[in-house]
Design brief:
Blueprint lengths: L3 H9 L7 E2 L2 H4 L16 E3 L4 H14 L3 E4 L18 E4 L6 E5 L4 E5 L4 H10 L2 E2 L12 H7 L6 H4 L6 E7 L5 E4 L25 E8 L1 E2 L3 E9 L2 H14 L4 E8 H11 L10 E9 L4 H14 L5 E4 L3 H12 L1 H8 L1 E3 L2 E3 L5 H15 L4 E7 L4 E8 L5 H14 L15 H7 L2 H14 L16
Parallel strand pairs: 2-4, 3-4
Antiparallel strand pairs: 1-2, 5-6, 6-10, 7-11, 8-9, 8-10, 12-14, 12-15, 13-14, 13-18, 16-19, 17-19, 18-19
The chain binds flavin-adenine dinucleotide.
The site of flavin-adenine dinucleotide has 37 residues, from strand 3, helix 5 and strand 10.
């Protein structure tokens, strides 16, 4: 194994001074994740400011057989951006590559470097009368490179798709330092393989993303936001069907929130839902550039009450009220982290099996650990639930995770809807994924990263 001093000396020869952090205090924020559940050590942290510099770093690390860990905004929830504890890996932070290279409002696209904060890119799009439709509660810190590498989902997937659906072009650096410039600005391109898909959602295990061209959409001029309470998940699914029929393609978000998730928000942030308590709450948003949306939305609410699908509800009368309703949703993750140690399960399921899954999960959790507190919420419109569990004692954590994932697998679901595998779910992916699929993934990994230096132990198993 190459020693730390040797690694630092070699890298110092290829990057600009000030680009390398070696002091343990300076490195600390790159070595622990946002929730403080994953901790690592690194030989050093490098912060390149150009694609050429990233290529030089990778070439140098490849020659020494030293592993690298790409690091964006550090908001990932699967420990993917944190090195192992050998102190022999190099963290590559893309934070200094933070230029928006171009924005074309008519062609509906933005070209941004990997370290651009998602919110900065959203604001640039908004200023041009357009919208970058990836919306996640961590957007103030998450980066363009991070959302591409994790194929981030979020609140608007129902209408606009995942990050993958928005990537038109990509610039990547391969394990040996080769720069591949695919920054095309084309909506249509069937000229051979769409290789950029290999780097989207693979968490830096096949290459480093240094820049991306992302699709924008026209910014809707009107939006309508409502919160309703329902008694059951089946009723929530019926209401989704009704909304898809009545407000159609303007439906942008359809979020499910359990009463307990909102109770955590009230306890830790003092924010309270403005409607009567139900078992479940829905946060629904529709948006359009044409007028008449409010009327269509009111009609939806009236029909929901007439058909006894909703027990209480409120339509936001102002932008401030709409934001206050969304703030309840956006504080759930932080409220949960303040409530204690929580296990995250980020699953997706066929829509019709969500109600039975939640029921069986509740019974199974009770049998395993009656003191464990479920915290369930998610993007119901996408079939994506965050089935989190707050534990006072972690002894049963493993059995709870396996039980949740088994219930998902038997229904044909996925154990990672949007957060990725990282280091957190890799063993579970190995346990539940058929051999032929694992071998195909291993073949791609060996082909693109023969020395296994790209983010080892994350997203892709090393021993396939
Ligand atoms: C409060 C909160 C709410 C969230 N809500 C959502 C949500 O609704 N939907 C959702 O999908 N996620 C959500 N997340 C998770 C997280 O914000 C996303 O996964 C985000 O895309 C991570 O971006 P990042 O820049 O912070 O990446 P990091 O956390 O730094 O890295 C994530 C992974 O990508 C790799 N990576 C980072 N940059 C690059 C690069 N340039 N090239 C190659 N690999 C790279 C890292 O090695 C790591 O494996 C949430 C997180 C928080 C804290």
């Amino acid at each position: 194994m190459t020693g730390r001093d040797q690694i630092i000396a070699a890298l110092s020869g290829v990057v600009t001074p000030g680009c390398i952090l070696t002091d343990s205090g300076d490195m600390q924020r790159y070595l622990t994740d946002w929730r403080r559940q994953f901790h690592g050590k690194a030989a050093c942290v490098v912060r390149p400011s150009s694609t050429g510099e990233v290529a030089d770093i990778l070439r140098c690390c490849a020659e020494m057989n030293v592993a690298v860990v790409p690091h964006g905004g550090n908001t990932g929830l699967a420990g993917g951006a944190i090195p192992d504890d050998s102190a022999g890996q190099v963290v590559i932070s893309l934070e200094r590559m933070n230029r928006i290279r171009a924005l074309d409002a008519t062609a509906l696209l933005i070209e941004a470097e990997a370290g651009v904060i998602l919110q900065t890119a959203q604001e640039a799009a908004r200023a041009a009368g357009r919208k970058l439709p990836v919306s996640i509660a961590s957007e103030g810190s998450a980066t363009i490179g991070g959302i591409v590498a994790t194929n981030a989902g979020g609140l608007n997937v129902l209408r606009y798709g995942m990050t993958r659906d928005l990537v038109l072009g990509l610039e990547v650096v391969l394990a040996d330092g080769t720069i591949v410039n695919g920054m095309r600005k084309l909506r249509k391109n069937n000229a051979g393989q769409d290789w950029k898909q290999l780097f989207i959602g693979t968490e830096g295990s096949l290459g480093l993303v240094t820049a991306a061209v992302l699709r924008l959409v026209p910014k809707p001029r009107h939006r309508a936001v409502a919160m309703v309470s329902v008694e059951s998940v089946d009723q929530a699914v019926s209401l989704l069907d009704m909304a898809l029929t009545s407000v159609g393609e303007t439906l942008t978000a359809f979020e499910l929130l359990s009463a307990s998730a909102l109770a955590h928000v009230k306890r830790h942030f003092g924010k309270e839902a403005p409607i009567r308590q139900g078992n479940w709450f829905l946060l629904i948003e529709a948006a359009s550039s044409l007028s008449g949306l409010d009327r269509a939305f009111e009609d939806l609410m009236t029909t929901a009450f007439e058909q006894a699908l909703a027990t209480d509800g409120v339509v936001a009368a102002s932008e401030a009220q709409a934001n206050a309703l969304w703030a309840l949703r956006e504080h759930i993750t932080e409220a949960e982290s303040r409530a204690g140690y929580s296990m995250k399960h980020d699953v997706s399921l066929p829509l019709r099996s969500i109600a039975s899954f939640i029921e069986e999960f509740g019974m199974a959790l009770d049998a395993i650990d009656p003191h464990a507190a479920p915290n369930v919420f998610g993007h119901l419109g996408d079939g994506n639930l965050h089935v989190n569990v707050i534990l006072s004692d972690t002894a049963k954590a493993q059995v709870i995770m396996q039980t949740v994932h088994d219930l998902v697998a038997t229904r044909g679901g996925s154990i990672s809807a949007e957060h990725g595998l990282g280091q957190y779910r890799l063993d579970e992916w190995m346990r539940l994924t058929p051999r032929a699929e694992r071998e195909l993934v291993g073949l791609l990994k060996r082909t693109l990263d023969p020395r296994a230096i790209l983010n080892p132990g994350k997203a892709v198993p090393g021993n396939e």
